[in-house]
Amino acid sequence: MVDVNSVRWMIAGSVLLLLGVLFPLLMVLRVVEPSFLLSFLSFAASMGGLLVGMVGVVTHTTRGRGPY
Question: What is the C-alpha to C-alpha distance for residues 23 and 14, in angstroms, rounded to an integer?
Answer without folding.
Answer: 14
